[in-house]
C-alpha cells in the first residue's frame, strides 16, 4: 500500500513537471525581448514582443558612444504584423516619424527616421531574442 502511494506521488510529480514545462515553452515562444544594435555599433534598442497579441513595446534605447540610456516604454503602432515580420510607425517627442521593419526569424530590423528639417536617416540592426 505504501509503495503504491509512493509510485502515485512520483508519477504525479513528473506529470506536473512535464505539464509545467509545456506551459513554459508556450509562454516563452509567445513573448520575448528583442535586443538590437545598429550596424555601426553606436546605438541599441530593446523591445518586448508578444507574437500572440501582436504587440511590440519599445522599452529602452541607448546611445553606446555616450552611454546615455533612454527609458521609452511606448507601444509601437502596428502597420502590419504577419508571420514573423512586423512593420511599425512611431512619432517621438520632436515629431520625427520612424518606420521600422522587424524580421523576428532573421533577428534583424531596419529603421528609418523622417524629419521635417532634413533628409531621412536609416539604420540596420542585428538583434538577439531573449526571455
Give a verbal description of the structure:
The protein is an alpha+beta fold. It has one domain. It has one helix at residues 2-30, and strands spanning 31-38, 43-50, 55-63, 68-75, 77-82, 85-91, 97-103, 108-114, 121-130. A 9-stranded antiparallel sheet has the order 4-3-2-1-9-8-7-6-5. The chain is globular and about 40 Å long.
* Poorly predicted runs: 9-28
The total count of strands amounts to 9
| Strand line-up of the largest beta sheet | 4-3-2-1-9-8-7-6-5
Shape: globular
For the terminal residues, how far apart are their CA atoms?
Answer: 44 Å
Give me the number of helical elements: 1
Beta-strand portion reads over 45%
Structural class: alpha+beta
Instruction: Please outline the major beta sheet.
Output: 9 strands, antiparallel
- Computed CA radius of gyration, to the nearest angstrom: 21 Å
Amino acid at each position: 500500500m505504501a509503495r503504491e502511494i509512493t509510485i502515485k506521488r512520483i508519477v504525479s510529480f513528473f506529470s506536473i513537471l512535464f505539464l509545467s514545462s509545456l506551459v513554459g515553452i508556450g509562454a516563452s515562444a509567445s513573448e520575448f525581448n528583442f535586443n538590437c544594435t545598429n550596424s555601426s555599433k553606436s546605438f541599441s534598442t530593446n523591445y518586448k514582443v508578444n507574437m500572440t497579441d501582436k504587440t511590440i513595446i519599445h522599452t529602452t534605447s541607448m546611445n553606446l558612444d555616450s552611454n546615455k540610456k533612454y527609458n521609452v516604454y511606448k507601444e509601437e503602432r502596428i502597420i502590419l504584423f504577419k508571420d514573423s515580420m512586423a512593420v511599425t510607425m512611431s512619432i517621438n517627442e520632436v515629431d520625427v516619424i520612424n518606420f521600422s521593419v522587424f524580421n523576428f526569424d532573421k533577428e534583424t530590423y531596419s529603421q528609418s527616421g523622417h524629419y521635417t528639417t532634413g533628409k531621412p536617416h536609416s539604420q540596420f540592426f542585428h538583434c538577439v531574442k531573449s526571455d
